[in-house]
Amino acid sequence: MANRIFSGVQPTGQLHLGNYLGAIRNFVALQGDYECLYCMVDMHAITMWQDPKELTQATRTVAASFLAAGLDPKRNIIFNQSRVPAHAELAWIFNCVARLGWLNRMTQFKEKAGKQRENASVGLYAYPVLMAADILVYKATHVPVGEDQKQHLELTRDIAQKFNHDFGVEFFPITEPIIQGEATRVMSLRDGTKKMSKSDPSDYSRINLTDGPDQIADKIRKARTDPHPLPETIEELEKRPEADNLVGIYAALDDITRHQVLHHFGGKLFSDFKAQLIDLAVARLGPIGTEMQRLVKDPDHIDGVLANGAERAAAMAAPILREAKRIVGFLGA
Ligand code: AQP
After folding, report:
1. For residue 260, is it within any domain?
2. Ligand 1, from 19, 196, 253: best to mutate by most atoms within 8 Å of Cβ?
3. Domain-located, residue 183
């Protein structure tokens, strides 16, 4: 089977450095070697309340970030999820394959629902099942994601395996995650033990892709560190979460290893290191932010890209969904 990639980003809130280094940048790197579908997962977004106007706008902004980061809409299929109903249809079949016990173990639901579990939407609970449908409705073989999505990917594999086993077929592939780079889990700039996240109330916890040079510099300067100079070894680094995070970000942005960063900066003061990190981050992220700002001013262009992508995605999904329905025994499939 040909290698095929699917990955999605939720159009919620501000896209940040974690989304970029954990996911979007890898999408760009993979576009030559695989057939790729990249999606704004708006149906996932509404598992938590979204203001309708902001959802529409955020969908365009995520699309703009994909294009600004270097994804070519001709070589890749770029679209928003809700335009291709096959995702929802396959998700229903998978709701009947996945087991409650499997979903009960999902840590993202526990984190997002928190103490308000009884009040969480059914969609938030079923989120990983829809994610499995997103991937398998295209028989995607690989999914580039950040570390936080690993458990959901395992569930996708379990669903594919159970479907194949229950119906005695070899229909869905057992998808492999691609979790690569030196920053697969970028942490908050305020707390090295918490993931950098769109929903963190502190804007200083993250670098947004639309932040200008002054904001990037200010946030990195204020990023929490410990009082010691940078460590000299990886073993020492791993005991210091804030240092580890900044070194990982530097390594990922410069396409080198943490080891190489320490070779250069080990024993130096954080103030020196941060000054270099600011220059690097501004050089790498500045052009993306500027291009995003330009693209969002032309919503017709973005809407055209998404409409075209959805058409191509729907055509690819249709025969796979039809066959899945036939396997299940749905009359008329
Ligand atoms: N901190 C991160 N480090 C590395 N990768 C990350 N990703 C998210 N945060 C980090 C990866 O970005 C892709 C798209 O994420 P998403 O928007 O679909 O999911 P998310 O996890 O909901 O993003 P946030 O920022 O963490 O949002 P909230 O605050 O709502 O929880 C995925 O590949 C993800 O792994």
Report:
1. yes
2. 19
3. no
